[in-house]
Amino acid sequence: MKLSELRKTGHPKTLLSSFLYFDISFMIWVMLGALGVFISQEFGLTPAQKGFIVAIPTLAGSFFRIVLGILTDRIGPKKTATIGMLVSMIPLIWGFLAGKSLPELYAIGILLGVAGASFSVALPMTSRWYPPHLQGLAMGIAGAGNSGTLIATLFGPRLAVHFGWHSVMGFALIPLVIVFILFTVLAKNAPSQPKPEPIANYFNVFKFKDTWFFCLLYGVTFGGFVGLASFLSIFFVDEYQLTSVQAGDFVTLCVAAGSFFRPVGGFIADRIGGVKLLSTLFIIAAICMMGVSLLPALGLVIALLFIGMMCLGMGNGAVFQLVPQRFQKEIGMVTGIVGAAGGIGGFFLPNILGTLKQVTGTYSSGFLTFSFIGLAAFGILMIANLSWKKHWNTKGDAVKI
Questions:
Q1: Residue 56 CA to chain centroid, in angstroms?
Q2: What is the pTM of this model?
Q3: pLDDT tens digit sequence for 252-292
Q4: Which CA distances in Å does 13 have to 73, 129, 147, 263?
Q5: Which of 5, 78, 115, 314 is at a distance of 20 to 30 A from 377, taking alpha carbons?
Q6: CATH of the domain spanning 11-188+206-391, picked from 3.30.700.10, 1.20.1250.20, 3.40.50.360, 1.10.3430.10
């Protein structure tokens, strides 16, 4: 497989547009996490409240991913993305001009979930342009838009130190408007866009056990990635007494591993199979989180988180090398559902870390729990693979599971 095939067999401008849309949306989605230290200081939040406030956009994104997934199949991804970006401007304006109370923050967090739902649009838009043997790489590139977290964690704390966290919400409108214009000009729906069906038909995918398998697996890979991305700034400040800017820099480093290796995960999955790659990644990620639970020296914990988040990022690419092989016609809805499961995982992880910290007095218990969850995901993958080997039809293209 050559990278040049992406240009010859698909639509590079749409691939770029999908990446940019997902990238800027992801930046907006994790904004509260990147600014969590400043927000928690202003409102005097407890550890459990810290975990909850940064997790609200993630949970809201889970709901909106299903909504946008249905819209993607019914009105097309380009119109859906346009609506999503326009709605995403609302919480940024609200946070910039107001956001003076916790109820307001909750509402802002819920609306930020619309940006997180961009996943349900960007990946189906890309998937429909490319053949099965390029799905892992193409969707990995589009999915690498989760690198938008880097922008939030790298620049958010720095700007907040000088201008305040409210102003950072306003600054985020600038790149969003730029991407909105580029997307409108460059993106194009694929010819394979399915005809709209009755809304009830889209929920038939819940009848397939493979849907649930993918939800569980993605709930760990993506949920782990976005959950850590949202909470690590607070963890570094609380546990290692770093400044907010230092914490943001280290989070950026760890997030970079997961973001930039997502396409690598898709590429390798195309070559050796998503199941084989995922099984290795779950084991390594679990070992890394177990190491973090020991709360070692800062240098070692960063190395462990870097490797662990790299595995989670590659796992995201591997899962979505498998999804289009099983669900092509319903890819929009399935992407929304699986993406929603990832968001739910991302909601629970910060809450687990924050709540267990408050109950036990240490972050060790939370990271140890996540390690066990990674091992459980490995077991679920092995069970799912027994079914996939018997029932999947992958003839025609050299597709590997």
A1: 14
A2: 0.83
A3: 999 999 888 888 898 898 888 889 999 999 999 999 999 99
A4: 20, 11, 19, 17
A5: 115
A6: 1.20.1250.20
